[in-house]
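Sample intake sheet
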Amino acid sequence: MEDMVVVRKEGLYCVPGDFYIDPWRPVARAVITHAHADHARMGHAHYLAAAPGAGILRARLGADIHLQALDYEESITHNGVRLSLHPAGHVLGSAQLRMEWQGCIWVASGDYKLEADGTCTAFAPVRCHTFITESTFGMPIYRWQPQAEIFEDINRWWRANAAEGRASVLFCYSFGKAQRILHGIDPGIGPIVCHGAVEPLNRLYREAGVFLPPTATVGEAEATRRGKSNAYAGSLIIAPPSAAGSPWMRRFGDYSDAFASGWMRLRGTRRRRGVDRGFVLSDHADWPALQEAIAASSAERVIVTHGQVATMVRWLRQNGLDAGAFTTEYGDDDVDDSGAAPPATAQEQSGHA
């Protein structure tokens, strides 16, 4: 039997179904696993995605896109291929795609993590014959602490800065990571201010029923603190990495900065970022979780799409699995820091908000 999914110049292509999975070039029919910019792109004629992420997709790609939304585990049949979307636990609306054709089942994972975080539906393993997996952090060095410990570390850092009259600036990806942090931290420590790339996404999460503490934009915060010296003392400011070193930062006076990412596991990354603190918090599976997800799929064949591909393929083969790789254009979520997220307002970009 020929492979159900192959790689074409447009992206991953389901041959019998005649559709693409997270294609990187415009196509007639695209199934989107989640709304990060390396997986969800403009220009497709028809989109299929999980219903919880519909609002995010429309906000990012345009309200008028031709979007068909499926509830998790709801199935449809297209060209003889039975399709369903299952929770991936990565960000709001993230999904794994299950494809069944002539008794053969393939699952494309998209990006995923196994630790439930309260901001999106938790990962649910899907049994299949072939599992297409990410491997962003597919090396043994990548092992995450429980997120509750990371949130407590962030709280301690923020609390200590507030006691000394400083602001706390936390850089993180605008979509997914920012909302996960907001959901997990202690909002009683002080006011929370969000960059203009973050706040519109906060609203979409709240509309989807996710609890986030009260937040304000810089413009809203400054309107209530005009004339006060050191107006941001004690505040937590959530901003995308692109804000670091920009004129937007000058308003915060005395501040301590930090970066939250799985890449903070590497000392060199924190050093290159030039921040005071690094918090190891990722929305991708770590090395043990990748192994757990692959085992839970019961797949006889595993195809690795991006990240630490060679390491993961070698490990899988050593453990008796039929493993290979697809060359893709997917990357880490920092692609969203390039402007794919809802942009800051003109006032914020100019430094006047």
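Comment: The two ends are 60 Å apart (CA to CA). The chain is about 25% helix and 25% strand.
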